[in-house]
């Protein structure tokens, strides 16, 4: 027997015997995709490639992976929408962590309008939420986002983003973004091998700008940063001009990259 509590109505019987594993355990993946408003997602292929890697990492069966990829391949984005969230869960099953390889995943897509692109620089600080280390999940956009929920709830009132560290004090990412920093004239972005998400905009920047290096750095290095940017699919590329009350320059490369990203969606 199963009951749900509803505000105003109390406990109500629920005839659904089984529960979706995404709801029970966060057993699944998601992609947040920027669209151009004309039914096209310029970086769609990168999103699907990351999704496929995530399905393998979560040990979805070959049949389940084939179903998911067929489903997303058949999506026709409606004109007028500028973003969508694609969500994949392992499916509906009995209680307990174990799962049958015969489970068929649930695939949903929800459309909405992304915020307008902006060139306004961010204000950010250091989060007191430490990212856990799990190489099996690093890079993948899985549904377990409680660290980000807690980090977002801890924002100071003026923050647009934050820097999140791992337990060794290494900078990993923002709460909602990947991070790039300019140190001694070189652009760096942290490794995503033990924690963090391998963002699509991160990958696009690395593919199109081979001068950017993947190299770890800690919080003290940010005190001498010549530029700091945050990237994600919806906002694109945003410079940070105040970090932990320190004023930073807006690097000219960041402006160029920001414009190149936005032009894909015109």
Automatic annotation (TrEMBL):
Its EC number is 4.1.3.38. Coiled coil: none annotated. Pathway: Amino-acid biosynthesis; L-valine biosynthesis; L-valine from pyruvate: step 4/4; Cofactor biosynthesis; tetrahydrofolate biosynthesis; 4-aminobenzoate from chorismate: step 2/2; Amino-acid biosynthesis; L-isoleucine biosynthesis; L-isoleucine from 2-oxobutanoate: step 4/4; Amino-acid biosynthesis; L-leucine biosynthesis; L-leucine from 3-methyl-2-oxobutanoate: step 4/4. GO terms for molecular function: 4-amino-4-deoxychorismate lyase activity; branched-chain-amino-acid transaminase activity; pyridoxal phosphate binding. Acts on leucine, isoleucine and valine. Belongs to the class-IV pyridoxal-phosphate-dependent aminotransferase family. This is Aminodeoxychorismate lyase.
């Amino acid at each position: 027997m199963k009951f749900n509590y509803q505000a105003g109505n109390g406990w109500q019987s629920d005839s659904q015997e089984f529960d979706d594993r995404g709801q029970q355990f966060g057993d699944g993946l998601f992609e947040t995709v920027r669209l151009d408003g004309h039914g096209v997602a310029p970086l769609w292929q990168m999103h699907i490639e990351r999704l496929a890697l995530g399905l393998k990492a979560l040990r979805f069966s070959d049949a389940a992976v084939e179903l998911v990829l067929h489903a997303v391949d058949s999506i026709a984005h409606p004109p007028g929408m500028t973003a969508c969230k694609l969500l994949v869960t392992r499916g509906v099953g009995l209680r307990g962590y174990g799962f049958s390889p015969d489970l068929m995943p649930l695939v949903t897509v929800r459309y909405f309008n992304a915020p307008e692109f902006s060139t306004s620089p961010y204000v950010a600080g250091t989060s007191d939420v430490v990212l856990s280390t799990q190489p099996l999940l690093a890079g993948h956009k899985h549904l377990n986002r409680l660290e980000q929920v807690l980090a977002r709830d801890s924002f100071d009132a003026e923050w647009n983003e934050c820097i999140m560290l791992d337990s060794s004090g290494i900078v990993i990412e923002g709460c909602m973004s990947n991070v790039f920093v300019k140190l001694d004239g070189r652009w760096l972005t942290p490794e995503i091998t033990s924690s963090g998400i391998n963002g699509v905009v991160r990958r696009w920047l690395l593919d199109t700008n081979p001068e950017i290096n993947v190299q770890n750095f800690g919080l003290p290095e940010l005190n001498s940063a010549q530029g700091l940017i945050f990237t994600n699919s919806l906002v694109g590329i945003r410079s940070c001009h105040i970090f932990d009350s320190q004023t930073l320059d807006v690097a000219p490369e960041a402006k160029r990259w920001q414009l190149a990203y936005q032009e894909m969606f015109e």
